[in-house]
Amino acid sequence: MQDAYLLWVCYVVLFFLATFCALSLPLYPTSATAKVAAEGTWQVVFVVFLAYAMMPLKSYVAAVFGFLLCGSHLAMSSVSATEFQDLKWQQV
């Protein structure tokens, strides 16, 4: 594989990793029993590790990807965590 294609393959892999994290966001129907903001955290940590350590990307690309992914998970979990309101900031 040529080096020119390797970067595009990395971007496609980043897209699929971001999709994996988007599917694991803590979005629950109203009838769900366990609504904890920490759901999906291990997926985000694993994907950020893959972006930083296992892919030949530039540092700023991996950093922007990590900040966007963590920020979106933090925002979504702070909005969707409706149970245990007094412990919400400890969960987030």
TrEMBL record:
GO biological-process terms attached to the record: adenylate cyclase-activating G protein-coupled receptor signaling pathway; cAMP biosynthetic process
Transmembrane annotation, as ranges: 6-29
Name of the protein in question: Uncharacterized protein
Species lineage: Eukaryota, Metazoa, Ecdysozoa, Arthropoda, Hexapoda
One MF term in the entry's GO annotations: adenylate cyclase activity
Keywords attached to this entry: Lyase, Membrane, Nucleotide-binding, Transmembrane, Transmembrane helix
GO CC terms, sorted: plasma membrane
